[in-house]
Structure formats: structure tokens, C-alpha cells
Amino acid sequence: MPRMRPGGLLVVDNVLWSGRVLDPQAPDDHAIVDFNELVRADPRVDSIMLSVGDGITVARVR
């Protein structure tokens, strides 16, 4: 997020990965889980994960 301005939005689709994030087994599954955790734990952003379709995360830079 270093290139994003305050107030900038990052919108990411497929963050629930067809439910595979609940029981990750493949490397791709773990990559999505890791991404979700990074966004959740990042103090520079406010974020929300929506369970619409395959999941959408919206993060706003503080």
C-alpha cells in the first residue's frame, strides 16, 4: 500500500476462494489466507470483507 494515497480504495474479489480459505490445502489457498490476514492486520487501512459471491474485501487507506 505504499503507493496509495490516504482515502484510496483497494477492492479485491474472490477473497473467500470458494470456501477453500476455511480449510486451506493448496499453495493458492494459503496465499489467499495470507493476503486476508495481511489486510486485516495492517494498521494503515480500514477494511471490510463482504460475503457477496466469492467474497470481496474493500480496504481504505487511512
UniProtKB/TrEMBL annotation:
Key word Transferase present: yes
Gene Ontology MF annotations: O-methyltransferase activity; S-adenosylmethionine-dependent methyltransferase activity
GO BP terms, alphabetized: methylation
Any matching Pfam family: Methyltransf_3
Alphabetically ordered keywords of this record: Methyltransferase, S-adenosyl-L-methionine, Transferase
Keyword check for S-adenosyl-L-methionine: yes
InterPro entries referenced in this protein's UniProt entry, alphabetically: Cation-dep_OMT, SAM-dependent_MTases_sf, SAM_O-MeTrfase
Superkingdom of the organism of origin: Bacteria
The protein's name: O-methyltransferase
